[in-house]
Amino acid sequence: QVQLVESGGGLVQAGDSLRLSCAASGRTMSSYVMGWFRQAPGKEREFVACISRSGTSTNYAGSVKGRFTISRDNAENTVYLQMNSLKPEDTAVYSCAAASFYSSSPVNYRYWGQGTQVTVSS
Prior knowledge:
The strands form two sheets. Strands 2, 4, 5, 6, 9, 10 and 11 form a seven-stranded mixed beta sheet that branches. The protein has a four-stranded antiparallel beta sheet with strand order 1-3-8-7, with no helix packed on it. It is globular. The chain is mostly beta strands. The relative contact order is 0.31. The N and C termini lie far apart (40 Å). Helix content is 0%, strand content 53%.
């Protein structure tokens, strides 16, 4: 199994940027598809982005496409989410997760981090 720990969240203003990191330990991260999800208060968890094991394929939610970039460094066992042009509606707890196959559905992700809070003020 793999343990995931997110970092990099914080309070920023609209238009600012943040980079989230997710460090994996245990089984090597290169064995998994990695995804980022977010959950705002009172809302369901939603898909943000995912990346294939090699990093050659990525997929994004329409609401973040063109603003967010997912990447991974398998040598460092870390996956990143670069978030630019942040909007107040991006405010949520962001969690990384690991899956055995490429998917945007959270039900297919077996391992989850505890999440990091991102708050965007207007």
